[in-house]
Amino acid sequence: MEEDISILLAKLSFSEEEKKRVVSKKANKDNSKGYEHWAIGKLMTQEKVNKEAMYRVFKSLWYTKEEVNFVALKDGGILVKFCNEDDRKKILNLSPWLFDQCLFNMVPYSKDKTMEEYDFNHTPFWVRIANIPMEYMDRDMAMEVGSAIGEVLAIDWRDRDGGWTEYMRIRINIDINKPLQRVVYFTNHGGEEFVCSIRYEKLPRFCYICGLIGHTTQKCKAQKNSNENQDNIFQYGKWLRVPIRVIDQNNGLLRNGIEMIKKDKENDSELHRNLWKVIGTNTQYDHEETEQVKDTDDESELSTP
Question: Which residues form the CCHC-type domain (predicted)?
C-alpha cells in the first residue's frame, strides 16, 4: 500500500502551499528517550495471540524504571519503546519471554533496518546438558558441547568450588528455524561414547512431530505427509522442557557466578547477578501457564535419556 501511494505521489504536481517544508528542531535537543533505547519484537507462532493482554502482562512483569509502551507494526512486528538503556538491557538479557507459551522474540531496534532485515530466527535459551561424566565437566567441555548446539553466550557455574554435579547449564543462541536438538554425542579418550541429553528452560510451545517452535502437533504439515503409525510419529516430547519450579531464596535460577562468553552492549554480567526478583516473577508466571496440547501429545512423552 505504501509503495503504491509513493508511485502515485511521484506523478502528481503540488501547489506552493503544499510544498512548504516542515523543518525538525530536535537536532540539538537531548534525545535520551529516543529510538536508541527501543527494541523490536515478533511473536514466533502460528497461533492467534491477544496482543493487548500480552502488553499488560509484560508491563506487570518487567519492573522497568520507566514506562514501556508497545506499538503494533505491519508484518507482525511489535515496537517496544523503552525509555532508558538499562531497562532494555535488563529485559533482553532475561530472554526468552513467553506469553501463553508462545515465544516473543526481541532484538535491539535500528532506525536503518526494515522489518525484513531483523533476525528473529535466533533466540538465547538456557539449556541443561546431562549424562556427562563428572570428571569431564569443565569449561572446555562446556564450550565444545555448547558449540555443537549453537553459539555459546554464557556459562553458569553452579558451584565455584566443585563445578557442576548433575548437569551443565549453558546459555546458547538457538536457531529456531531448525528442530530442537535433543542430544549431543560425546566420546572420551578411551573411545567410550555417551549420549548427553538436552533440556531447555522456558521452552515455548513446540511440535512433538517435527520439533519446531511456533506450531502445535495438530497443525504440523509433516503429520499429514507421514506414513508412520501413531506410536512412532512422536520424536519429541515434554521431556525436552525443564519443569518450572517456584523460586525462593534457597532455590534460585542464578548460581554463584555466570561467565559471559560473548560480551556486547546487550549482555552485561552484572545485570544477571542482580535480577533475581524479575526472573522469579517471570518464572512464576510461566508456572501458571497450562499445557495446550491434546492428550495424544501427552502420550508421546518419551523417557528422559
Answer: 207-221
Q: Which residue has the higher pLDDT, 119 or 17?
A: 119
* Among candidate residues 46, 78, 40, the one with its CA nearest the CA of residue 206: 46
What are the tens digits of pLDDT across the range 36-92?
A: 999 999 999 988 899 999 999 999 999 999 999 999 997 789 999 999 999 999 999
Burial of 74 (0-12, 13-18, 19+ CB in 10 A): exposed
- pLDDT above 90 covers a percentage of the chain that reads 48
Cβ-contact 153, 124 below 8 angstroms: yes
Reported as a pLDDT band with limits 50, 70 and 90, residue 5 is confident
Name all domains of the chain by residue range, CATH numbers in brackets.
34-117 (3.30.70.330), 122-299 (no CATH)
Q: What is the 3-state secondary structure (H, E, C) of the chain?
A: CHHHHHHHHHCCCCCCCCCCCCCCCCCCCCCCCCHHHCEEEEECCCCCCCHHHHHHHHHHHHCCCCCCEEEECHHHEEEEECCCHHHHHHHHHCCCEEECCEEEEEEECCCCCCHHHCCCCEEEEEEEEECCCHHHCCHHHHHHHHHCCCEEEEEEECCCCCCCCCEEEEEEEEECCCCCCCEEEEECCCCCEEEEEEEECCCCCECCCCCCECCCHHHCHHHHHCCCCHHHHCCCCHHHECCCCCCECCECCCCCEEEECCCCCCCCHHHHHCCHHHHHHHHHHHHHCCCCCCHHHHHCCCCCC
CA-based nearest residue to 105, from 115, 114, 223: 115
Contacts of 184 (CB under 8 A, 6+ apart): 129, 145, 148, 149, 196, 198
82 alpha-carbon distance from chain centroid: 18
